[in-house]
Amino acid sequence: MSTLPVADVSSAALASSVSVDVQAERLATDGAAKGHHFNAAGAALPSRATVETVVGHLKREEELGGYEAAAAARDRVEAVYDSAAQLLGATRHEIAMFDSATTGLRVLVDAMRLAPNTRILASRSTYVSHALHLLSIARERNVELVILPTDADRRVDLDALRELLADGTPSVVTVAHIPTSSGVVEPAAEIGALVARFGGVFVLDATQSVGHIATNVAALQCHVLVTTGRKFLRGPRGTGFAFVAADVLPTLAPTAPDVRGATWNAPLEWDLDASARRFESWESSIAGRLGLGCAIDEALRRGAAPTEAWLVARGRELRTALAEIPGVQVTDPGFPDSALVTFAVAGTAPADIVTRLAERSVRVVSVPRSHGQWDLGDREIASVVRASPHIYNDDADISALLDAVHAVAEGADS
Q: Cα–Cα–Cα angle for 3, 398, 234, nearest 5°?
């Protein structure tokens, strides 16, 4: 089958208006030459430098021992806090490191010690792991949990949120900036403004947005932001970090203080670290953390604005081209500005589509309803195929994806 024409925006056209050097990114990413990887929303391809950073520290552990290698790398580890703070527009005092976004969300929400008279207002975009935690809190602590209404584009209905916050009930508003189940981008800045106006705590799950779209904490007015390393930041698995606003930090205390974030200074007394490190655990992958720092520094050098412009354009391109293939339905509500694209092919289960595309070295994933019951379940969608490009995907990658989907849709692979 001949290669399908790439939709409106080609990499050449993008390069003329957006300063992302795709070829350079591909040359710095060994995996880019070994297939067509469209799973940045799951775990993006790391750069060679990030991998070498991780492996290099593991070699130091082999040579010196884990504690000794960590001591030798102390300044480099400290620099990761500075890089993470710069990325978010925060201070290093407000940064905590975790092994995943899920751990960060669990630790920080538990640290709020929600009382029965408080309320959780959660977006339909909430990811399964966080949703299950919120459901457990609501059940076990008799805390009210409200799933926020959505507008026509499946984003948080700002009028409904305003009405809920205006009643004065102490509330924690928790929103996934971009869900796992679609390319929707929640109006986070507007949500932050409402929470600031009426009071409450705004928790932003930025797992799919940091390294993808703008995530400046001052502009978003969030009190807590949590993200992972492995997705659009292109860092190692088993890494993540959080921002906790300085004015909220003193009000939060971990339910299980750890030697990393607390000092046991008398038989029945301990003091928490003054910074967000009070939420951290002693044990962590130093190699992974250094790799995360390398990935963050690469994102900083590339620039948030050019990266966002490039990725959003790629998302638009994919949605337009997929929608033109007979039998293919783009399942993203509206036409969102993100690089996370979901779709379905009539008569073929999403899991089977993933398998057939993998046979052509095109790597996507399927997202089942069980990963987003408040979204996919509410829309009565059993599962979707998700494609999420990154700055190492060129026109040949896009064509390979479209060719493969077209073949599935017309039954060529059946």
A: 155
- Please state the three-class secondary structure of 232-278 as a single string: CCCCCCCCEEEEECCCCHHHCCCCCCCCCCEEEEECCEEEECCCHHH
Residue 185: DSSP 8-state: -
Helix (H) / strand (E) element for 358: namely helix 350-358
Question: What confidence tens digit (pLDDT) does each residue in 335-364 have?
Answer: 899 999 999 999 999 999 999 999 999 999
Concatenating the DSSP letter of every residue in 187-241 gives -HHHHHHHHHHH--EEEEE-TTTTTTS---HHHHT-SEEEEESSSTT---TT-EE
> What DSSP line would sit under 277-307, residue for residue?
GGG--S---HHHHHHHHHHHHHHHHH-HHHH
Percent of residues, the chain, with pLDDT higher than 70: 95
Phi, psi (degrees; rounded to nearest 5) at 263: -115, 120
Question: Contacts for 195-198 with beta carbons within 8 Å, 24 or more apart?
Answer: 195/165, 195/171, 195/221, 195/223, 196/221, 197/165, 198/162, 198/165, 198/166
Phi-psi label, residue 51: left if phi above 0, alpha if psi -120 to 50, beta otherwise: alpha
CA dihedral 286→287→288→290, nearest 10 degrees, is: 80
Measuring CA to CA, which residue among 292, 305, 258 is closest to residue 278? 258
Which residue type, as a one-letter code, is found at position 308? E
pLDDT for 309-319, tens place per residue? Answer: 999 999 999 99
Amino acid identity of residue 321, one-letter, is A
Nearest 5°: the CA angle 350, 342, 413 is: 40
On whether the CB atoms of residues 220 and 237 are closer than 8 A, the answer is: no
Longest dimension (CA), the chain: 74
pLDDT digits (tens, 9 = 90+) for 94-152: 999 999 999 999 999 999 999 988 999 999 999 999 999 999 999 999 899 999 999 99
Q: What phi and psi, each to the nearest 5 degrees, are found at residue 255?
A: -75, -20
Half-sphere exposure of 146 (CA within 13 A, CB side): 19
